[in-house]
Amino acid sequence: MSYPLNPDVYSDDVKYEPIRAGFGRGLKAAGEANENVVALCADLTESTQMHLFRDAFPKRFIEVGIAEQNLVTVASGLARAGKIPFTSSYAAFSPGRNWEQIRTTATLNNQPVKIVGSHAGVSVGPDGATHQMLEDIALMRVLPNMVVVAPGDSIEAEKATRAIAENGKPSYIRLAREKTPIFSTDESPFVIGRAYTLREGSDVTLLGTGALSYELLITAKLLEEQGISAEVVHVPTIKPLDREAILQSVRKTGRVVSAEEAQIAGGFGGAIAELLSEELPTPLKRIGMLDRFGESGAPAELMDHFGFSGKKMAPQIKSWIEKTAKYHQGF
Amino acid sequence: MVTLTIPQIEQKANDIRRDIIRMLAAAGSGHSAGPLGLADIFAALYFNVMNIRPEEPEWSDRDVFFLSNGHCVPVQYATMAEAGYFPVDELTTLRKLGSRLQGHPEREKLPGLENTSGPLGSGLSQAAGYAYSLQYLDENPHRFVYVVMGDGELNEGNIWEAAMFAGKYKLSQLVAFVDRNNIQIDGTTEDVMPLEGLKSKWESFGWHVVEIDGHNVTSIIDATSQARAITNRPTVIIAHTIPGKGVDFMEYNYKWHGMPPNAEQAKEALEDLRTLGGQITHEGAGV
User: Fold this and answer.
1) By C-alpha distance, which of A21, A116, A47 is closest to A75?
2) ipTM of the assembly?
3) Rounded to a whole number, what is the distance in Å from the CA of B218 to chain A's nearest CA?
4) CATH code for the domain in which residue B230 is found
5) How many domains does chain B have?
6) A38 contacts on B by Cβ (under 8 Å)
7) Residues of B in contact with A80 (CB under 8 A)
8) Full set of structural domains in chain A with CATH
9) Are A131 and A119 in contact (CB under 8 A)?
10) What stretch of H or E contains A313?
11) What is the pLDDT of residues A139-163, one digit of tens each?
12) What is the pLDDT of residues B113-163, one digit of tens each?
């Protein structure tokens, strides 16, 4: 069955909404479904959209103040008491500041502490490099027991939040501040650990995570106009990776591009490189932040500046394809 | 659970100290001073203060214990074995490949452990999270949360984040111990990073503070009774202890913080503990 895409996805009228808004609705729904769900915030309740949960379940909302180390370690204790704690802050602070506490008291301790990192990526905009978290995927995916999810749009974020509430594991959800296009629908599937083919093609597999999967759809459309058939696979779960779905697409196309609004080292592209080099060595181009920090600017301007817009990715990918032979079995 | 009398608890603390020496000597690595200094507090908690069922570690009405300074876990393992959570014979597997008794405690390895710790500063937060759950989410006033921290550990900012949190929410079912033994790895606490006036620091964070002799079992038990009776604040018990307590050549010497005894030193230590150095005078205490 093909993935039900938003019919307006290629139109200028595509609806935009911040991914974090979907999280806010998902958390409230998770709270309605399970009374053990509790929420903790480090003085960023509305920014991280936890206010919907707070207003619905004031008794189950805990304000910890600007104290991210305490945020996750208190959550660890709540989890030991049988609760399902969601902790939210900006990704630059959590998991940026409290990585060791997450490692020891959530993942080694193996408690279902949920880390919600909002405002990830350069699309945070004018706040600048300090607040544009780019290293979170790498930080979280190296931890045993940790599940890492970067939803592609607000609709998927809502589903992902509900799924993570019930997965029984320490988990990281990566959210973005700015409004991004909605490419999925209420009917689109989301299961933790699954990747989804959004668009079929034969010359190259474009693997996206987070909101960049939408940009890859635009890229694929632009490439099509130039005679290149690109398959777009959306990979919302970075860990555990849907190895089979990715390899299946790569076997067909023989070339791979990964795209993430994060550091080029150690993140999503790194996970893909690890998979391919062990299972199916295939030419891979990684798109991400090239070992540098972001800077202040308008969100759309920054996305374009750092090469994350569909318009900027398409020519890069085209020139790479032109000089890169496909992988062939037995090569 | 078995509730022991005060002389029996003192005796048990001595047994725990002997277990600690044996297990550290067998392991060939580990921390000596802190665990020996904490033996009286652990004996009092597990054999009198806490409402627990060693044969049913996940018993839903239990009091819970969090160890924050995970390097002192030999005293917890020894106490748990003496209390019947697992066989005393298993203590000598400490720090060995395949053992449930990891060098620093891992919750999933051993039933009866409530948390994983080692990197300092996080145990008070974990205990506070549990206490919050009891007080505000479960609204169960009958269970209590105990946590032991080291004093050197109070250098960590995470501790003071937790102290503010517990103060704000008046977590009255939270009972914390600070093992005030005045040593840390690089020297005395007051040389490395001064903590005094420690009592007023905690008071200013909204805590009820009790200072006791951490080797006086009666004082330990009385302080916890007082803590449970205070219903509008968390309590911290600053327990003054002697690092290496019970082993003459280890007492007060910070060099024994992170070192185990060798075979000869272990023999001497066990002899010290067997004769009690004349420190416990009531009848029936000597073995």
Assistant:
1) A116
2) 0.95
3) 30
4) 3.40.50.970
5) 1
6) 137
7) 64, 107, 114-115, 126, 129-130
8) 16-181 (3.40.50.970), 196-322 (3.40.50.920)
9) yes
10) helix A310-323
11) 999 999 999 999 999 999 999 999 9
12) 999 999 999 999 999 999 999 999 999 999 999 999 999 999 999 999 999
